[in-house]
Amino acid sequence: xxxxxxxxxxxxxxxxxxxxxxxxxxxxxxxxxxxxxxxxxxxxxxxxxxxxxxxxxxxxxxxxxxxxxxxxxxxxxxxxxxxxxxxxxxxxxxxxxxxxxxxxxxxxxxxxxxxxxxxxxxxxxxxxxxxxxxxxxxxxxxxxxxxxxxxxxxxxxxxxxxxxxxxxxxxxxxxxxxxxxxxxxxxxxxxxxxxxxxxxxxxxxxxxxxxxxxxxxxxxxxxxxxxxxxxxxxxxxxxxxxxxxxxxxxxxxxxxxxxxxxxxxxxxxxxxxxxxxxxxxxxxxxxxxxxxxxxxxxxxxxxxxxxxxxxxxxxxxxxxxxxxxxxxxxxxxxxxxxxxxxxxxxxxxxxxxxxxxxxxxxxxxxxxxxxxxxxxxxxxxxxxxxxxxxxxxxxxxxxxxx
Amino acid sequence: xxxxxxxxxxxxxxxxxxxxxxxxxxxxxxxxxxxxxxxxxxxxxxxxxxxxxxxxxxxxxxxxxxxxxxxxxxxxxxxxxxxxxxxxxxxxxxxxxxxxxxxxxxxxxxxxxxxxxxxxxxxxxxxxxxxxxxxxxxxxxxxxxxxxxxxxxxxxxxxxxxxxxxxxxxxxxxxxxxxxxxxxxxxxxxxxxxxxxxxxxxxxxxxxxxxxxxxxxxxxxxxxxxxxxxxxxxxx
Lengths: 402, 236
What we know:
The complex is a heterodimer.
Chain A: H1 2-13, H2 15-51, E1 57-60, E2 65-67, E3 79-81, H3 94-103, E4 107-122, E5 125-134, E6 149-152, E7 160-164, H4 165-171, E8 178-183, E9 188-197, H5 202-207, E10 208-212, H6 213-219, E11 228-233, H7 239-250, E12 253-256, H8 262-300, H9 302-310, H10 315-350, H11 369-392, H12 396-401
Parallel strand pairs in A: 5-10, 7-9
Antiparallel strand pairs in A: 1-11, 1-12, 2-3, 4-5, 4-8, 4-11, 6-9, 7-10, 8-9
Chain B: E1 3-16, E2 19-32, E3 36-41, H1 47-54, E4 62-67, E5 70-71, H2 77-87, E6 88-91, H3 103-115, H4 120-132, H5 148-160, E7 166-170, H6 178-195, E8 199-203, H7 206-210, E9 214-219, E10 222-228
Parallel strand pairs in B: 3-8, 3-9, 6-7, 7-8
Antiparallel strand pairs in B: 1-2, 1-4, 4-5, 9-10
Helix pairs in contact in B: 3-4, 3-5, 4-5, 5-6
């Protein structure tokens, strides 16, 4: 393609100017990648922190509604949530539901649970506690307890209990000691503290006690069902989609983790919008840089373009020459910017403070490289459209007479 | 001899606000194939305007123009550009070579751009034209490394690249020293005689006009007289 040859020749005829131009584009791309990787990394870190110790989707029995039956179909009825302290809401067919969930792609773990409220009594000390009864083999499926044990062990057994460090401290308990558990269903049993964990989350360490599902059944008066099924996904970002599917498939109430952390979601969205603005400004600066350089180039080459027009070279050829210059600048600057952006992000991600934590939550693999390369190239081509059009309209006579 | 150019009643009026200036006032021009014709006249006589009109770079206010048997005054811009590319050659006072290209690439450019590249045939033709103008050994030189006379000879080779029916030259020796001007004129004479290329040369230089077969004299926008160019440069 001869237009490409001419475009390349024009760019290489003034290497210093071309290098400056490509560097400018690369700098804009680097900023774009840095911001993208930083915002994505921050979102990943915050999401990880929130979801690492909790379920991505929670399945619970649907809220039952009591409706007034007026007899007249024309009369509008209004549902009222039925709250009973006697009739326990439960998922009876939890085994078949668990099988259905396991078959779904992207589900990494699930945990059928009996959750309820209780008091732990040790002598005169009484502490309210949120009890989670789960299958002992699935102890770490949702919340990594075993890796966080600071004393004792994770084997729940028939009368075992795991509690957090804060709760243990409040009650003056150590591993191996007995403690009385009194549930809100009136059940009462003397259990043994098998292990004490420390996750770093105060809500867990001070308020939650784990025991086996079988131990929890009589205590919460649930001989068959479970109160909830907790699910972990490979990608927490798919929680809403999976929850929607499971709600439809099972008729249960499915809550994605985002619904329990609406403030975080708002913050992430606001942060994403800020990032988008910075990305847009980076692209605008790239477009303005390329356009101004090519406008100057078109002006400088007026007589050359004019003489081409005098020979009868078509306006389309001139347009192609200038737009191809934009394309080459965009591609070269984009690729260079991708390399330098990745290098910068990788370097920043490798930095650690005295405690071994990364000061910037940057995710180099999430820099949006393909997107920025495509956007920059398209932007640079669009930026060249105006100078290309004006060059193609140069009057040959005027150029010759200069 | 067949006719290459036939212009009838060419009028050119420039308008500046309410003021109208009639630069050409009904010009008739005929050029036969293989002729070397000088277009002469004092500054402001309208010769450059006429040359631009005959080169399809400017539209006349009125008049009919036929080049190589084709009516060209009513062509649209795209067709005029294609006609200029295929049927006309241009040599200007300033060489207007493309500085980022070699002599060979400059010569091949008018053919290569519409075709999308320099084909082996184009390269061969360009090299043969450079040989014709005595610059075969400069084919791969960048245009910027050629002397003024060499550049103008490359410009002549470029004008001949697409085998034009008519070569229009506007003061082709105006920027050259005497020696280079002589070489360029000799070259155009040679090409005219040997290749039967038709030249219309706009000049205010009596010596250039004298080297032509005949001259068309413009005075105040009208053809005043036509005559042969009996004085040669060697008669100076």
